[in-house]
Structure formats: C-alpha cells, structure tokens
Specification:
Helix 1 packs across helix 8 and helix 3 runs parallel beside helix 4. This protein has one domain: NAD(P)-binding Rossmann-like Domain (Rossmann fold), CATH 3.40.50.720. Strands 3-2-1-4-5-6-7 form a seven-stranded parallel beta sheet, with helices on both faces. The chain has ten helices and seven strands.
Length: 284
C-alpha cells in the first residue's frame, strides 16, 4: 500500500475509528471517514488534512451504504480501494432475560450485520485495489462473559465472518485481519453505562432485583477496566500494520488478557472457565 491509497473507515466519529482516520491521514493516505452526523464530520475536518473526506455512513442503513459506495467509487476510479476498516460498534449490556429484543437486534445489526453489509458493498472496489479488510473485534470475541452476552455474540459472529471471508477472497488478492483489543480508552465505556441505565429504567423492579447484585459487581468491574484501559494508540498501531505490512497477521490480540481469552481459556473445561470468568467479573 502506497501513500495516497484510498481507505474507508466506518465508525470514525470517535474512539478507535477516529484515531485511525487521523493517523492514516497524517501518514499520507486518502481517508473516507464514515460518520453519522455533520458535527462529527466537522470535528474530523478540524483535525485532519484535505485528504480526509467525511462520508455519511450508518452501517445499519442500506440506503446510506449504497450512497457511500457510489460516492467512493466515483472518487477512487480504477485505483479501487486499498483498505476497509470495519470499526463501527456499540455495546448493549444487560442480562439476556431483561434485555429488550429490539436492543439485542440493534446490537447484532450494528456490530455484525452492518459490517457484513458494508464489506459486501465495497468488495468490488477492494478487488480493483487488491485491498485489505480489517475487522475490529474485541476480547469478547474470544470469551463470552455474563451480562455482556449480546455484545459477545456480535463479536463471536464477527470473528466467524472474519475467518470465513479471509478464505473466500484470498484468490482476489484481498487480505483479511481481525484486531481484538482488550479495554481501550475510548468513549464506548461511558456510552455503555448510559445505555445500561436507560435499559434498566424500563425493567420490572422485581425482575431487576434478581440480578441487581451481579449487575452492580459488573459495573464495578467495568469501572476498573475503564481506569486501566490501554491508550487508543495500541489499536491504531495494529490496524496500520494490518493495512500496510508485507506479511500482515490474520489476528491481532492486543494484550496478555486477550491472548489468555482467545488461547488459554479454550483449553480448559467449561466449568473451570466459568469459575474463572465469574471470579474475574466479581459475580456469583
């Protein structure tokens, strides 16, 4: 990949996506940054060069995906797309029994179905450019934990998509990689907490009481994770390697805790793994 190559990044309004967009722009790449509001677009323009182009892109909106694909195609021409970073994501916390079905659907639509839809729309341009796909996964793509079951399900699905897609498009010269961070210092923590508060406000108090002590323990665990979160630069470095290295990895596990969840925990019995998870999370 050369300077001046075209890269599309979804979920570039904040967090990992924004940091990747700004750094890749600084390195001379031509970035299409997927955002959902004019305010986010203006913030990006203020931090980047004229090479960066904000693109309205809600990954759950088929019309916006099609419009973005048309716009990007017109801009890149025969050069095609050198990279696609599927970063858009949300976290919907809560026990399976109490989560509204529409909230579970939204979790899967944003974190999984939306990534598939965007990738499908841009595969013709990736073929032209013999580009690369980088899927932003999570530690929860290797370990499902209580009260983040819907989020874990979305990341497990994204890992399956990553591994199957990698073999389907290899003959086109397209490489596919997954970047799995642990806790990263991004706004997803505060957004998740606000969403948890909003979801719990409509729950039957008696039903909520059944889970209350565990949910309070999970909130404390999330606060500890947020305080110890790694700088966003760790994820940016992995994404850039996946996009530019001559021999990129297929999976990037960012931190010992992520490697532990993806590698070691799979080698022990389910009951032993469950005990480890409950102890780490502080739940019963």
């Amino acid at each position: 990949m050369k300077n001046g190559s075209f890269i599309l990044i979804t979920g570039a309004s904040t967090g990992i996506g924004k940091a990747c967009a700004v750094e890749l722009d600084r390195r001379g790449f031509r970035i299409f940054a997927g955002v959902r509001s004019d305010e986010a677009a203006e913030r990006l323009r203020a931090e980047a060069s004229e090479r960066l182009t904000p693109v309205r892109l809600d990954v759950t909106d088929a019309a916006e995906i099609a419009a973005a694909a048309e716009r990007v195609s017109a801009a890149v021409g025969n050069a095609g797309l050198a990279g696609l970073v599927n970063n858009a994501g949300i976290s919907v916390p809560g026990p399976w029994e109490l989560l509204p079905i529409e909230a579970i659907r939204e979790q899967l639509e944003v974190n999984f179905i939306g990534q598939v839809a965007v990738t499908r729309a841009f595969l013709p341009l990736l073929r032209k450019g013999r580009g690369r796909v980088v899927n932003i996964s999570s530690i929860n793509g290797g370990m499902a934990i209580p009260y983040l079951g819907a989020y874990s399900a979305s990341k497990f699905a994204l890992e399956a998509f990553n591994d199957s897609l990698r073999n389907e498009v290899r003959n086109f010269g397209i490489r596919v990689a997954s970047v799995a961070p642990g806790a990263i210092d991004t706004p997803i923590w505060s957004k998740s907490e606000k969403l948890a508060d909003r979801l719990s406000s409509g729950v039957d108090p008696q039903a909520y009481a059944l889970y209350q002590s565990d949910l309070e323990a999970m909130r404390r665990a999330a606060e500890r994770s947020a305080r110890g979160a790694a700088p966003v630069g760790r994820a940016v470095k992995a994404v850039i390697h996946a996009l530019t290295a001559k021999r990129p990895k297929t999976h990037y596990y960012l931190g010992w805790d992520v490697r532990f969840c993806f590698k070691i925990l799979k080698m022990v019995s389910d009951r032993f793994r469950d005990r480890i998870v409950r102890r780490l999370m502080g739940v019963r």
